[in-house]
TrEMBL record:
<dbReference type="GO" id="GO:0005737">
    <property type="term" value="C:cytoplasm"/>
</dbReference>
<feature type="binding site">
    <location>
        <position position="116"/>
    </location>
    <ligand>
        <name>Zn(2+)</name>
    </ligand>
</feature>
<dbReference type="InterPro" id="IPR016193">
    <property type="entry name" value="Cytidine_deaminase-like"/>
</dbReference>
<dbReference type="GO" id="GO:0006220">
    <property type="term" value="P:pyrimidine nucleotide metabolic process"/>
</dbReference>
<dbReference type="InterPro" id="IPR016473">
    <property type="entry name" value="dCMP_deaminase"/>
</dbReference>
<dbReference type="InterPro" id="IPR015517">
    <property type="entry name" value="dCMP_deaminase-rel"/>
</dbReference>
<keyword id="KW-0378">Hydrolase</keyword>
<feature type="active site" description="Proton donor">
    <location>
        <position position="89"/>
    </location>
</feature>
<dbReference type="GO" id="GO:0008270">
    <property type="term" value="F:zinc ion binding"/>
</dbReference>
<dbReference type="GO" id="GO:0004132">
    <property type="term" value="F:dCMP deaminase activity"/>
</dbReference>
<dbReference type="InterPro" id="IPR016192">
    <property type="entry name" value="APOBEC/CMP_deaminase_Zn-bd"/>
</dbReference>
<dbReference type="InterPro" id="IPR035105">
    <property type="entry name" value="Deoxycytidylate_deaminase_dom"/>
</dbReference>
<feature type="binding site">
    <location>
        <position position="87"/>
    </location>
    <ligand>
        <name>Zn(2+)</name>
    </ligand>
</feature>
<protein>
    <submittedName>
        <fullName>CMP deaminase</fullName>
    </submittedName>
</protein>
<dbReference type="InterPro" id="IPR002125">
    <property type="entry name" value="CMP_dCMP_dom"/>
</dbReference>
<keyword id="KW-0862">Zinc</keyword>
<feature type="binding site">
    <location>
        <position position="113"/>
    </location>
    <ligand>
        <name>Zn(2+)</name>
    </ligand>
</feature>
Amino acid sequence: MMARKDWDTYFMDIAYMASTRSQCSRRHVGAVLVQGKKLLGTAYNGAPMGVPDCSEAGCMLVEEYELVASDGKEQVVKKQRCIRTIHAEQNLLLFTDREDREGSVVYVTDQPCWTCANMLANSGVSEIVFHRSYPKDNDKVRALMEQRGMTFRQLENYEPPAGTVSEVKN
């Protein structure tokens, strides 16, 4: 008999299943809202409803420059970011009610970016659980969650369900 999954694994599996709906060629992200052990909503990253997504219209890339410190030296790094896609966490907040979010937990396949972390910090959510880290915003997002008194944790030994992980392109 197969061992019963713990709640973290169960809800993260659902987040990964939601991520399979994404048409983003750079990163498939899924998010789940949970109150107690009740699933209240799922979301994934993608273009707004009724608008061609990246698989149909291509990525809408913008270039950004970031000052990065490494080994005591600072250098300017040029990065590209797609702005066609609404992030999974943003879609989750758009399609769930504030009263349902009060004291709830968000399970998300990837650590929230700075913008999503800010939105989640103001959403009523009390805990964020993620699997894959997002090094670019890690330190400042962790500091924000600590300031807000929110639980913020990574499932490091988690294994996503077969067929749900896409290659991550930065």
